[in-house]
Amino acid sequence: MGEWLDKRFNVTASGSSIRTEIIAGITTFMTMAYIIFVNPAILSEAGMDFGAVMTATCLASAIGTLLMAFLANYPFALAPGMGLNAFFAFSVVLGMQVGWEVALACVFIDGIIFIILTAGKVRQAIVNAVPYTLKVAVGAGIGMFIALIGLIQAGIIVDNPATLVSLGNIKSAGPILAMVGLLFMAVLHAYKVKGSLLWGILLITIVSIPLGITTPPEGIISAPPSLSPVFFKLDLKSALTFAMFPVIITFVFVDMFDTIGTLIGVSTRAGMLNEKGELPKVGRALFADAVATTLGACLGTSTTTTYVESAAGVEEGGRTGLTALVVAILFLCALFISPIAKIVPSVATAPALVMVGVFMMQSLKNLNFDDITEIVPACITIFAMPFAYSIAEGISWGIISYALIKLLAGRGREVSKTMYVLAVLFLLKEFML
User: For each of the chain's 433 residues, which pLDDT tens digit applies?
Assistant: First the structure.
């Protein structure tokens, strides 16, 4: 078996070993396993069945990661993306009052578009057309948005008719536990403990039981929850309308930059880029990501994408698809722990959302703060997402402001034609819908 794995994934030729690849796979899974609990918690806010979404999350993650392992032979893991699931639940379903079946159909269409773009080799060209500044800003803005959602779920931030938002009752058990969880996760991460978010979620869940915030599980192992409440529940007819066009474009836009950024960033740390700074077999990796998104929507979850937590496995020495194969197997095993997943309270997952927000905002250090034509559109993008409570609005106004500021500042040639087209489309969406 070991010889076959070595030959199939070119383990030895990649300067790795089967033992190293297995450890790397376990490490990657530990750092991203929080999605098993967090994704159902977020999508259940949109009215979707928690257990069914948990099953869909594990299956979509396993299938997507298997595709990455066997098609591209890269140590990258896939799962429903943070930020994209928040956009799905809070911006599209709750914000626009759109049924989650319609939102799933939009994700499905997003995946089909990606398959077509990848086959036509134009996906990379579209990404290159959008300036680096906005790519950084989108990630940071989503980070702020996710952190805000976490703070609200924890009861730390509450609504206020006079000031819109204010500090909640931080003396109550829920907010205190969430803050303890945040500190615990941050300290573990500072000590470079693998799976810091997962350990934090588990700790707060255990502490919540004697406090009466949650109840003990009826068991540990059980059959996976049924997929039937969400399986193939796609309302394609309602999704294929002009009103849903901005939603689909936003899914495409966010997923595109999240995937490309993750692939290039993790590959750079792993030394996988060639002398031209390109990632070999990137088309296969993008194809795996696109197919995973399409299948994930059919299963009943939001956009499946490549995870930046794959960097944890890469740092442990993972260099081939065998790392990804291990992650996929562990996601399949996770299908049978639904009794544990069901008792995880929001105060346990909320600090994980805040920590993910922190991670996503680390890219701000790459912004050019000295160029006003760059930093203003970036800040508009970042501010609009949490303040308008919409990732879509942040992206829309970021692109619009970037094109207009550059044009009016006499630097219009720095903006690509594709960006101008996107700006016009988003302006039409804002003032005609």
Answer: 778 888 899 889 888 899 889 998 998 898 888 899 899 999 999 999 999 999 999 999 999 999 999 999 999 999 999 888 988 999 899 998 999 999 999 999 999 998 998 888 776 666 667 788 888 888 888 888 888 988 998 999 999 999 999 999 999 999 999 999 999 999 998 998 877 888 888 899 999 999 989 888 877 888 899 999 999 999 999 999 888 888 888 888 778 777 776 777 677 667 776 766 567 788 888 899 999 999 999 999 999 998 878 877 887 788 899 999 999 999 999 999 878 777 888 898 888 888 888 888 887 888 889 999 999 999 999 999 889 887 778 888 998 999 999 999 999 999 988 889 888 988 887 776 5
- Give the predicted TM-score (pTM) of the model: 0.77
What angle separates helix 173-190 from helix 196-208, to the nearest 10 degrees? 150
In 3D space, the residue among 112, 116, 106 whose CA is nearest the CA of residue 84 turns out to be: 106
- Check if the beta carbon of residue 61 is closer than 8 Å to that of residue 365: no
Buried b (16+ CB within 10 A) or exposed e, 190-210: eeeebbbbbbbbbbbbebbee
CA 141/CA 23 separation, integer angstroms:
33
Judge contact between 31 and 309, C-beta under 8 A: yes
Q: Are 157 and 151 in contact (CB under 8 A)?
A: yes
DSSP codes, 281-321: THHHHHHHHHHHHHHHHHHT-S-EEE-TTHHHHHHTT--SH
Q: Which two tokens stand for residue 57?
A: 């999350």
Q: What angle do CA 150, 155, 156 make, to 5 degrees?
A: 80
